[in-house]
Fold this protein.
Amino acid sequence: MIGVVFDPVIRGPFFACALMGSLCALIGTLLFYQRLSLKGEALSHACYPGMVLGSVLAVVFDGGTSIWLFVCALLSSFLGAFCIDRLLKKARLSSDVALAAVLAASFSFSLLMVSAVQISHPTLWRSLKVFLVGQAATMGDYHIAVAFFLLLSALLFMSFFRRAMLVELFDRDFAALQGSRVLSSSMIMLLLVASIIVGVRFMGVILISAMFLIPPIIAKMLVNRFFVAWGLSALIGAFCGGSGVLISHFWSVSIPTGPLVCLLLTLSFAAVLLFSTRQGVVVKWVRRRRFTRRCQEENALKQLWKECDRTQENTVELARIEKILDLPECGTLVRRLDRKGFLRRSSHKSVEISPKGLSKGKTLVRLHRLWELYLVRCCHMSEDRVHPSAEQMEHILTAEVELELIELLGNPSLDPHNQPIPDREVSLGS
Amino acid sequence: MVSDKTAALRVEGLTVHYGDFPALWDISLTVPRGHLVGIIGPNGAGKTTFIRAVLNLIDRSSGRVVMHGRPLEEQRRAIAYVPQKEKIDWSFPMRLRDLVQMGCYPKRGLFRRLTGQDHEAVDRAIELLHLQAHAFEQIGKLSGGQQQRAFLARAIVQNADLYFLDEPFTGVDHVSEHILMDLLRSMRAEGKTVFIVHHDLLNAQNYFDWAILLNTHLVSYGKVQEVLSPACLRHAYGDKLTLIEDVLQLSQIYSRGDS
């Protein structure tokens, strides 16, 4: 199964895409934290006029296609980068405006050039259109070598200057004070432009920016250390690049790789957005729901404790429970409390509150009344307005805060409404 | 007059423009070493601009800045800067300890590994600022005061001679304020010079022993009691003066402990 990636047909696209994926992610991370995420997009469009021109020149001079292509693309990307830089620094435009301006101008210009050759040179026209969405399937060992060389130089350079880059990305002033200027160095520029030109070959002008943009975002959502995030984004890029090639190969020949890789990246992003343990939407929803349920249970236990405290018995009839809780799903709630050991069904008509349940209820009443007293005494709120806040805070206050409150208030025995504050012992009565 | 060599900071004819609008106008001053220096003035007086121009973080229109008798470029390691909290991207994937560790980078340069001593210094600084419990939290999860302290811990690790703090007391809780103040005093005791941008006149007298009073131009500088005289304040704060004078009087009463 693993041997399949060494198959001559698939070897070129697979390794080239995986290597390029991780290269783009490495450089994309630098762009992302500089808040220049769309620079990849802008420069890929800026290199397209060069590619068109290069192809035309190759036809005119009859040969040397890849050299013409590379040189012209390099020049036009640099021109684009230069324009972006000027617009940012001299015209003081915001980065999105500068990037969008360069992107739109160069793309529309190249489309005009492409349409000019449509009738006269149909073959050239078709090969130019390929650059828009890329063509990974035709990549060979030569492309592996180029991608490997680029990735290796990027890795060497980045591991060499990793501290400087971290400082420059996080705190520009600190970096400026130390005289550190790696990110604005021409090596970074060269790596960026070279990876775009090679990347366009398999992802296409339009989609390449996803390779720069998405892996760093996913990595940032997963980990909280910069160097780990950097490495992780490179792995994500490699994984999506490689697996995109495999899927398109085994699924159907007519599936283009570039869009598939892009889709894989987007899907991974969506998955992380939904399920990551740190800030996933689903996880957050589950946590919120759990908290609401806990509040519901705690409120019930509070009421039950008050009832037991009144009757001085630890069994309560189900009918009575339904009356004091006054909730539609009272039966489910009792079953949940039973499962958690807060109470036991003693007969089919009544339940017995366990010591654990009583102590929990008592604690809640205590916290509630302590908080009310605190608000009245220390925050000078009026007595009739403290109840709603205490209703919420009783679920949140921790044991440490409780001790602090008791100390602050001098171990009080009555709350602002002259009701007793129950002690910390596990027994009925206050 | 303090000579060039013993002065912590010497500024001559510093002017900064934002476009056509002058932010600082012809500032010349000399500050001796070993003081807590408050940089005080109303909103838009150019306090932050002053620090950033001195540190060459923004372009100066004209002027010369010398620290410890030498230009900035020759002694980058002797200078630590704590920026305003608002300038930082707090969602950056970085833990508090990583942030403090950045303070070792100037000394170790790009390549040398951090030594055991470095790690000890980092731990000590974290402890000094009472941040041990949060060392491995992502910086965005810290409270405002803790964030401010984290940056100060980084500055401590840098072990600089000159410190520049931009509004370290804004959005800081009471506990953090005390920890910060104790630390600043002990830094002064070690002979370091600390410049602090501050907007609150009320406690300026208790915090600093030197002050630079700015309002686009230099209103006055020197010992804090002299600088915060009613005449100078009137100059700096203009019409709002009656209020300021009252507040100042109050602050003097409180700092003396009178009732």
Summary: The longest strand of chain A covers residues 350-353. Chain A has two domains: 2-277, 283-356. The mean pLDDT of chain A is 88.
